[in-house]
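Recap for those who missed Tuesday's class. We walked through two folding examples back to back. For each one, the amino acid string is listed first and its predicted structure tokens come directly after. Nothing is annotated here on purpose, so try labeling regions yourself before you check the end of the notes.
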Amino acid sequence: MAFHELRVAYRNGELAESAAGDNPVELFMAWIDTARGSGAILEPNAMTLATVDEAGRPAARMVLLKEVEDDGSFVFYTNRDGRKGRELAANPYASLVFWWEPLERQVRIEGTVSLTSAEDTAAYFATRPRQSRIGAWASNQSETVADRAALEQRFAEADAAHPGEDVPVPPWWGGYRIAPDVMEFWQGRMGRMHDRLRYERAGARWERTRLQP
């Protein structure tokens, strides 16, 4: 099946250097605020996380951004024993992609990865709905399971083992901080003449360049 007939005439905006500024984290915050306020994007904090294994084979999946820290690090949480956690342990570099289709905007981020502290992990875990906290105990992420019934049984057992609202953080669960050294902003334009501004960290500052589409 061919998809060449699927065409989009991008026409929603532009990205000029004068409007972008010199700080890509500030630009990102402005863009995600626009995405949140648009009312057209279900999860504006959804992002593709790309990792590589020890053999250099890439893998990508969707995760949710939970915080942008004061130093510009991007934070998400997950089961650290799953595939993504194993790959980040072996190769602590990652790439993120945000795609906000109604705004015709994309942001790409590359950077180094470190673990969140136990204190930060516990503080975030406590904000999760109880069922999500129980699910963190029930799932051996990325491992096989016989069927849905077996998975539901694991959830029921975890639920019974942790009655009430005081559900502790599983020892295998936690957060990751991605400290960006490259951030690229893409704005769709007519005729596929898209705007692409790339920021690369140079010590304490950022260097901005324009890329051809």
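Example two. Treat it independently of the first, because the proteins are unrelated.
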Amino acid sequence: MASRGRRRGRKLALNAEINVVNLIDVMLLLMVIFMITAPIMQGGVDVSLPKAAARPLEAKSGLVVTVDRSGDIFVDKDKLTYEEFRASFKALSDQHGKGGGYLRADQGVPYGMVVRVLAVMRASGSTDVGLVAEPEDATH
């Protein structure tokens, strides 16, 4: 009986450690969710790009100007009228740096509209303007 009393009288040491296994599980789950949703969120403006047999452009940072099927102009994701675009593109280009720019135009946009937007981009001092297109299928 004496040994029984000694066991009751001893106090157990407190365990003050944090169990990080659960935290790691949550972190990995969040990382997987962000990896899946990040490409979806970077879609930008939806356009049907023309197909061309062109070599791919090197990835650089630069302003992306998009002209959608209805003729609306987007600088990155901000919608502008042609007049607003013409008046503000030089300032936007200077603010963004000398990375050049990319012009994405829907294949249904009239050629004249694409030329007008390209002229504004070139007049602002952006001499390095890339025209974005979809690669042609190898079967054609």
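Answers for example two:
The first helix runs from residue 2 to 9.
The chain has two domains: 2-41, 51-135.
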